[in-house]
Automatic annotation (TrEMBL):
InterPro entries: Thr_synth_N (IPR029144), Thr_synth_N_sf (IPR037158), Thr_synthase-like (IPR004450), Threonine_Synthase (IPR051166), TrpB-like_PALP (IPR001926), TrpB-like_PALP_sf (IPR036052). Residues 2-81 form the Threonine synthase N-terminal domain. It holds the Pfam family Thr_synth_N. It comes from Phrynocephalus forsythii. It comes from the Eukaryota. This is Threonine synthase-like 2.
Length: 476
């Protein structure tokens, strides 16, 4: 399997190449040259697999055995999931009135991003040890990505990680999961900016090809294809849990509702669709509704500043993975994608061509939930089921309560409610805090401040250069 840029201006590369990349050299995002379509017999076989087995099968389709043998790949994935709190790694809760919730938050940081980042961390270590290299990871986070990325590499001698988080936009628990990490290879920056603003210095550093190459820069945000790859398994597992495989075609349709911020998880669902899985996808958003407007009206534009909501990890107005979704629904039209994205990043406003808009609205549905609706949904689910939703899961469940299901339906749960104590309190729901979370509040913290008006990219350059001096030789 080879990978190409969504903008068509970079040559193809293998999985190792995209793993250690940020953006493609032409500014695009990497995608597989071809997406395999699974036949009936394969889907029937996969229907009996556990979640880890599905991840293994998917990874063998997208990672050449000449890079990682099947045996080694399976071992890496087993190691990735060894710290998860549930024996099945993920779990489906079946509640009243057909409400199925796939809990994806049993990893070290109580967030779904642990699933893909635990695997990605193992893949990184495999290649770094093999090549004798050191890399520096740059990550911007709106809440959960930073702590998951830190957990995947903390204490590793051949990886340093710099995480930028927007001060005041994350919950206390999310922030503490990052700032209480004391390993020398972890560098946390508290910024006076929102989730979209912290992406700018990261893009600037990746755009400096010489600097990026010399210092082995890479990303663990969902621009990294490895993140998307592992997340495809969510959809196969959800489907097989909601519609056990029949003996003959046609297979039943399952609707999957996805709490959506940056669009990485939505991209994974679109790829699962392209692979032949009979699913309908619903992108559920909060008041930062750019993806909702894009699907409904073809209006891919930023209306203004990011709106702070109770579903804070989804407070994003520039979802870069929409570039991948445009590429998928345009039939891999890289020239169109390049034109759309260059216009968007210049003007912050794009009206999709009618044909692309038609395909997008036929392939995806969307919904929007206000803060009031999110809190009401959390309370309603608690009253009906004595089941505690995180605010992001509630965005998806709000859709379930609004619209009767025509097919079996599954709502993805990206995080545990224990990370959102203040929001749970606003919904007037009792919350028992685990000892692990309580202990965070008593730990020492460490971070570097990035103040508004400072040149954040320059501050990061100095830190990365200091990191490089500690490692000999510097990667070139």
């Amino acid at each position: 399997m080879r990978y190409i840029s969504t903008r068509g201006g970079a040559g193809s590369t293998d999985f190792e190449g995209v793993l250690f990349s940020g953006y493609a050299p032409d500014g695009g995002l990497f995608m597989p040259e071809t997406i395999p379509v699974l036949d009936f017999a394969t889907l029937q076989t996969w229907s009996t697999f556990s979640y880890p087995e599905l991840v293994k099968q998917l990874c063998t389709l997208f990672i050449s055995p000449t890079l990682i043998s099947k045996t080694e790949l399976n071992d890496l994935i087993d190691q990735a999931f060894s710290r998860f709190k549930h024996q099945d790694v993920v779990h489906m809760s079946r509640l009243k009135e057909g409400l199925n919730i796939l809990e994806l938050w049993y990893g070290p940081t109580y967030a779904f991003k642990d699933l893909s980042l635990s695997c990605t961390g193992q893949f990184l270590q495999y290649f770094l040890k093999k090549r004798g290299k050191h890399v520096t990871v740059l990550v911007g986070t709106s809440g959960d990505t930073g702590s998951s990325a830190i957990e995947s590499v903390r204490g590793q001698k051949n990886v340093d990680i710099c995480v930028l988080l927007p001060q005041g936009f994350c919950t206390q628990v999310q922030e503490l999961q990052m700032t209480t990490v004391m390993e020398d290879n972890v560098h946390v920056f508290l910024t006076e900016g929102n989730a979209d603003e912290i992406d700018e210095p990261i893009k600037e550093l990746f755009a400096d090809e010489d600097f990026s190459r010399r210092h082995g820069l890479m990303s663990l945000n969902s621009i990294n294809w490895s993140r998307i790859l592992v997340q495809i398994a969510h959809y196969f597992y959800a489907y097989f849990q909601c519609a056990p495989a029949p003996d003959a075609l046609p297979w039943p349709v399952v609707e999957i509702v996805i709490p959506t911020g940056g669009g990485g998880n939505l991209t994974a669902g679109c790829i699962a669709q392209k692979m032949g899985l009979p699913i309908k996808l619903v992108a559920a958003v909060n008041d930062n509704d750019i993806i909702h407007r894009t699907i409904q009206q073809g209006d891919f534009s930023v209306p203004g500043a990011v709106t702070s909501t109770v579903a804070s990890a989804m407070d994003i107005q520039e979802p870069y993975n929409m570039e991948r979704i445009f590429w998928l629904f345009s039939g891999s039209d890289s020239s169109l994608v390049k034109s759309l994205m260059e216009q968007f990043y210049t003007t912050k406003k794009v009206k999709l061509p009618a044909e692309l808009q038609k395909k997008l609205s036929e392939g995806l549905k969307s919904s929007k939930a206000s803060d009031e609706e999110i809190l009401q949904t959390m309370r309603c689910c608690w009253d009906d089921n004595h089941y505690l939703l995180c605010p992001h899961t509630a965005v998806a469940v709000c859709y379930h309560y609004k619209y009767p299901a025509c097919h079996p339906r599954c709502c993805l749960a990206p995080a545990s409610a224990v990370k959102f104590e203040d929001v749970v309190s606003k919904a007037r729901i009792p919350l028992e805090i685990s000892s692990e979370i309580s202990m965070l509040k008593n730990k020492k913290t460490r971070s570097c401040a990035l103040k508004r008006g400072e040149d954040w990219a320059e501050v990061l350059r100095h830190r990365i250069e200091a990191i490089a001096k500690q490692h000999n030789p510097i990667i070139s």
